[in-house]
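Weekly structure sync - notes
Attendees: PM, LS, DV (DV joined late)
Agenda: review two folding runs queued last week.

Item 1: First target. Sequence and structure tokens pasted below for the record.
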Amino acid sequence: MSFIPGIPIRPAVLGLILTIFGTGSALADDTRAQKVPLLPKYQQECSSCHVAYPPGMLPSASWKRLMDNLPNHFGTDASLDAESVKQISAWLTAHGGTYKRVREAPLEDRITRSAWFIRKHDEVPASTWKRTSIKSAANCMACHTRADQGDFNEDAVQIPR
């Protein structure tokens, strides 16, 4: 195989090059995960209080624990009927952890405590999260203007005052 005329490159080397430069499997995994259409029932129920987070942001085991403890959902009773819990749980666990960067469950199963979230937001001062226009790191919509569409691209970030 030749990538540059006259210079042979083995497929494994080409794969490594594509991965390093962001066009390989890491990007493909995150793109695939972001394109999982939200389950209407999930979007309806969860977005009534917060953005309906893409399921790839947490591993399946985290989603299972969260769904098993809806009466105490981060200090709020988010109880649902049994059929909704069954349907949403099955969908979340089927699509959980599909972001390549999601390797293990974060502390307290909080997206904002995951290693990738902390790394991506390391330049945001703690005082920014406390602004009344933001309230917490879990309020993605405050800065990510298209978070409700599953788009967390940095180009669309607008940090409110």
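Item 2: Second target, run right after the first with the same settings.
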Amino acid sequence: MRPFALLATRAEDRPADEEYALFLRYTGLSPDQLIRVRLESGPMPAFDLDAFSGIFVGGGPFNASDPDQKKSSVQHRVEAEFQTLLDDVVARDFPFLGACYGIGTLGVHQGATIDRTYPEPISIVPVTLSEAGASDPLLDGLPDTFDAFVGHKEAITILPPSAVLLGSSPACPVQMFRVGANVYATQFHPELDIDGITTRIHAYADHGYFAVDELELTLTAVRRAEVSHPSRILRNFVDRYSR
């Protein structure tokens, strides 16, 4: 089987390593089948897409809607690299699944409006599938509404004509979309479980996702229900695109 790639941007080792472990667990892939590239530590390598089965993008600290002057040199580099990669991915309709930061990269590439109109605090939200989502093969086996972990400062306000809406939540109209037949992005985190999101809450406690005195409230918010359905998306992606 050709390997998959996970493109990551987390600078902190513990959440970065745990993110990789979660993708391994819920895709069912082994380390030699899921090649991790930490983009925050160096340039994106040239990808021969024919050597891969598909590409995952994890979450991260970058916001596409930040003013250019507030973006670091690393963020500018990563954004430029994603634009080049996505030119090829979208043109070839190559299997791609971007989670959280991945929805920003694909959204920017396709001309979506991304701003801070629809943020969601770190929490569990119900995601409801659109008619297109209910029939999409990547969402096979998921109920029409399922709980998912979220936590983001920006979101897509307006999708471009090239995109098909697959899922929404009450406070965020674009939770998942597709371009072509094989290029996907989610605002929610399909890879997260309760241990993983707990690690991230502690790791990013001073990143502005919640007030300093709201740590315990945030931990309580992600423990109020069991979240089990979104990870099936990762398994479906691997089952569909392994080659």
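Discussion on item 2: The longest strand covers residues 120-129.
Action: LS to circulate a short write-up before next sync.
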